[in-house]
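Summary for the lay section of the report: proteins are chains of building blocks that fold into shapes. Here we show the chain for Threonine synthase and then a coded description of the shape we predicted for it.
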Amino acid sequence: MMYVSTRGTAPKLTFEEAMMTGLARDGGLYVPEEIPTLSTDQIAAMAGASYEDVAFTVMKPFIGETFTDHEFRNLIDTAYAGFNHAARAPLKQLDNNHFLLELFHGPTLAFKDFAMQLIGQMFQASLTRSGNRITIVGATSGDTGSAAIEAFRGLSNVDVFILYPHGRVSEVQRRQMTTPTESNVHALALDGDFDDCQAALKDMFNDFDFRDGVNLAGVNSINWGRVLAQVVYFFTSAVAVGAPLRPVSFTVPTGNFGDIFAGYIAKRMGLPVDKLVIATNQNDILHRTLETGAQVKEGVTPSISPSMDIQVSSNFERALFEANGRDGATVAEQMADLKDKGAFTISQGAIEMLRETFASGRASEDETFHAITSELTRSGELLCPHSAVGVHVADAHQSATPMITLATAHPAKFPAAVEKATGLHPPLPPHMADLYERDERVTQVPNDLAALQTLIKERIKQ
Ligand SMILES: Cc1ncc(COP(=O)(O)O)c(C=O)c1O
Ligand SMILES: N[C@@H](CCOP(=O)(O)O)C(=O)O
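The coded shape description reads as follows.
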């Protein structure tokens, strides 16, 4: 299995090379040259299997010769051993035909742990073989950063720098990133929004002297390995409500489009998915894109679901690549227009293809608060604001097909919003109970590429 860039001109890579490379050298994102499919019998056999069994079946066709079956199975088992729920991704019934997929039972209480814990294992196995040392730089609106730090803290052959938007993540998210004491962890509070953090990260990848000089690696969903690991729970949950015998729809709280793109891959692999519903907060660029056929960037407005405060949605590029018939030149033009003019248009054929697969909706701040309050009454489930955006949008897309909404974070990561909506203060789990007493260590940085690169180079010399 080889991987190709969405912009068409970077070299083809193996799974391991694509995983360790991050952004393609033409600025694009790596995707598999072909998307493997699973048979109906293989999907049916997932009923009653463990999460780890399903993970192996789903991911194995993508990894080529990178790991033997035995190695890969061990990496999967180790990755999920620290999860706080035997099912890893349990499914709760909210009402008759609406289910909630709880993805927050990992160590940092967000869905990012599913991929990041596995990527941590795969990176370590690869680095042990090669003897290389790498510098990970990650951009986060709150959850990727803490999950990455958790997966890579204390490793002697990895430095991990996390750029987060100063003042725009929740206090719990910030403390998760600023309180680890390991010297290979560097939390950087950038003077800007998440889009600025992600743009700086991509600029670092596109500066080949810097990239090669520090041996830059990426653990954002730029990295195909991140998307791949997230495909698994679409299978486990769909099978639990009747797939492959009956179709299922998903609503996915969306920002950088990685999670919902994983759902799209599951569909292409043969999972009977009816609709994939994009749920956005007031930063609704993706909802507007689907409605109008043009992507027009506006400023980011801070919300109570801060992890989705994103306008430049990185993985939408992967969807565009598919919608444009895998024409990398068109994608490269559209991405250049987005960067230079703040907008691009999608052809009629491509937007029709996107609308066949995806639906969309948005939740205002009031609707998000209301969803938290009313879900507590309806099912007793305490939602985080991101999951509440999902539930609000899903309720408007109900049909005879079962709907699964992804609950992407634990409510205890966003106690202020949850308490305002319900009067309840969700407690942190025992392993994080003293989070507020731990000392913080963070460097405030300007939104200036050269200054960031200098800081990173100096830190890794120490
Ligand atoms: C809690 C939470 N929900 C939803 C999202 C959106 O996910 P994606 O960026 O994959 O669309 C994020 C950020 O990625 C998140 O942290
Ligand atoms: N919401 C994310 C933003 C980064 O997304 P990623 O999936 O590309 O890592 C976050 O919480 O950091």
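Put simply, here is one thing we learned. DSSP finds 19 helices and 16 strands in the chain.
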